[in-house]
Amino acid sequence: MSQLPDLESLRLLVLVGDVGSLSGAAARLGLTQPSASKRLSTLERRLGLVLVERSRRGSRLTDAGRAVAGWAQLVLQDLDALLTGAEALRTRRDAELRVAASMTVAEYLVPGWLGELRRMRPELYVGLQVTNSEHVPELLRGGAVDLGFIESPRAPAGLAARRVAHDRLLVVVAPDHPWARRRRPLSAAELAAAPLVLRERGSGTRETLDQALRRAGAAEPRPLLELGSATAVRNAVIAGTGPAVISELAVRTDLADRRLVAIEVEGIELRRVLRAVWAPERPLAGPAAELLAVTRRHRPDLAPGAASGAVPA
Predict the structure, then answer these.
(1) Cα dihedral value 224, 226, 232, 233, nearest 10
(2) Cα gap 35→45, rounded to integer Å
(3) 240 burial class (0-12, 13-18, 19+ CB within 10 angstroms)?
(4) Which of helix, strand or coil describes residue 139?
(5) pLDDT tens across 74-102, in order?
(6) Cα–chain center distance at 172
């Protein structure tokens, strides 16, 4: 496709579906009806689909239009999360709330949490440091941040901790990888023996995998590549570099769209707890306590049964 849809056209399409009227959707965006009609026609040409049925009684989405509007809504929500996260990074120096988060939590959960906090407290400035789980406790002990989020198997010694979500790691491959045609689960030994695209040492994802393989009596994983973020790992697997062990948070959409295939592994526990951590000598108050409350209201408990006692506290 030579040109991507512009965001205003996607917003317009979503609004047409919501209000059932092109003129009403145009008015909400401050557009004239001819301008809005032209935008939709351009969007339809770029996608090669008829998205809106126009008649004297108004405008309504076609079946294709409803599907595209649903995907457009996800794109717009992700954009809002991106802008919220970028603003938090940009204002770190002048922050009233200082937060550190491990890479996966920062990429997939923190923007949504901060977005809700900012809707409650629009005047609040938040500074976000993105690092790996090993480094977050150092920032807390040194007083550089007020609140941290980690994905390590255990809560760090000397810090207060509270569960904010459950997650699980998945073994994923590209659809043309030989494992995608397996009819039986991998064993822990087979997983450990295979060259894998891995997160770097010190990350919560790598620590969780290493610990799970040790508990299963298997060797340490064999790195094919070591990368510094879940997004980089995901992209490498999609490109066909090799299998990876990665958070379900990072690949849900890819699994649904069959860009990636999840491979079952037996005899190994890959569920984990995501935690908020803070220095006990500095009890949470004000914005830090409010952010923790937000995380508790929106817990992405992805793994079935992840709330059971099988996951370490």
Answers:
(1) 50
(2) 15
(3) exposed
(4) helix
(5) 888 888 888 887 877 765 544 589 999 99
(6) 16
What is 191-222 written as a DSSP string? Answer: HHHSEEEEEPTTSHHHHHHHHHHHHTTPPPPE
pLDDT in tens, 142-189: 999 999 999 988 889 999 999 998 899 999 999 999 999 999 999 999
The rounded distance, in Å, linking the Cα atoms of 62 and 131 is: 45
Domains along the chain with CATH numbers: 7-74 (1.10.10.10), 75-165+272-297 (3.40.190.10), 166-271 (3.40.190.290)
Residues in Cβ contact with 33 at an 8 Å cutoff, skipping those fewer than 6 apart: 22, 23, 26
pTM above 0.90, yes or no: no
* Nearest C-alpha neighbor of 149 from the set 286, 273, 275, 302: 275
Q: Which helix (DSSP H) or strand (DSSP E) does residue 164 occupy?
A: strand 160-173
